[in-house]
Amino acid sequence: MVKIHWLGTGLSAIPGLKSLIDKGHSVVVYNRTVEKAAEALSDIKGDYQIIEFSLKDDDLGDPLIPESHILVLDIAKEDELIEIMEMTSKINDYLRGFFASVGIELIDFKLEFGRLSDGDDGHFIVLADEFSPDNCRLWDFETGEKLDKDRFRRDLGGEVEAYQEVARRLGVSLELEDK
Fold first, then answer.
1. Rg of the chain taking only CA atoms, in angstroms
2. Helix-then-strand count for the chain, H and E
3. Domains located in the chain, CATH noted
4. What is the DSSP code string of 62-95?
5. Contact in structure between 167 and 142 (CB atoms under 8 Å)
6. CB atoms inside a 10 Å sphere around CB 64
7. With the C-alpha atoms ordered 146, 151, 157, 161, is the resulting torsion angle positive or negative?
8. Can you give the pLDDT at residue 97?
9. Cα separation of 16 and 60, whole Å?
10. Residue 9 and residue 43: Cα distance in Å, rounded?
11. CA-wise closest residue to 20 among 83, 103, 114, 133
């Protein structure tokens, strides 16, 4: 699989950048961007994994932030960015296969990473997020039906049924037990 790091957006959120240290990193992985990439990179063919970094700031709309700006502003170190990209790539590979096994295509997803102290003078990178149809795009392989929050965003209706369908395919029981 070819990896492209599509990060050329420029600084868009200087006032909020330092808050990234405390709030963690957002990484968006797009698996279905061949058409978009082809326009800019017409000779590229194949299956792509694009990793983007964004500032976790709801007021600013979680703007993209280039890797070079993260480094220059000392929000994260180079080895941390490499670790985040490696973790994201492994998670992506696993999740794509996991969902494909039940007839669902994972289009993209968001992960948040943060730092935890190791108790001494150091720290380590942690994945600090849940995974649900609210932070990814899931489409039925055969029909292309959207099984995620795009049902709400695009006013398609049927959000509950779509989420229940994902749970059903994954073998997750939604029945509450009597206690």
1. 18
2. 7, 6
3. 2-142 (3.30.470.20)
4. --B--HHHHHHTTSS-HHHHHHHHHHHHHHHHHH
5. no
6. 19
7. positive
8. 93
9. 8
10. 22
11. 114
Q: Which residue in 47, 53, 46 sits closest to 67, CA to CA?
A: 53
CA 9, distance to chain mean position in Å, is: 17
pLDDT by position in tens, the chain (length 179):
233 333 333 333 333 333 443 455 454 444 544 455 445 444 544 566 778 888 877 788 878 888 888 888 888 888 888 888 888 888 988 999 999 999 999 988 888 888 888 888 778 888 887 888 888 889 999 998 999 988 888 888 899 999 999 999 999 888 766 55
Identify whether the C-beta of residue 142 lies closer than 8 Å to the C-beta of residue 156.
no
Provide the greatest CA pair distance for the chain. 60
What's the token pair of residue 168? 């059903």
**For residue 112, what pLDDT is reported?**
87
Both structure tokens of 57: 């700031």
The two structure tokens encoding residue 177: 């037990």
